[in-house]
Amino acid sequence: RGRYAASIAAQLVAECGGLCTPATRSPVSPTPLTGRQREVAELAAVGLSNKEIADRLYTSVRTVEGHVLHACQRVGASSREELAAIMRAGAAGAG
Length: 95
Prior knowledge:
Blueprint: H1 2-15, H2 22-25, H3 35-45, H4 50-57, H5 61-75, H6 80-89
Helix pairs in contact: 3-5, 3-6, 4-5, 5-6
């Protein structure tokens, strides 16, 4: 079932000229990040600062820092840059 959904998503991405959304970036299988951690990590991966993420999500910079820290711990990243690389590679999602 998961492979079927992934193949349909890949086909739709191709038909839409490489459309890239959180749904098309997220893997089908369960992964270690909560929804909010994934959301913050994805915004960090596209280059937003903690302040920009906090403003976009209507939360504090300190809360964003905590989500980044916990996301790094959950996926084994040792830095924000490594977390961003993991997110861009699609190795972390909702759990």
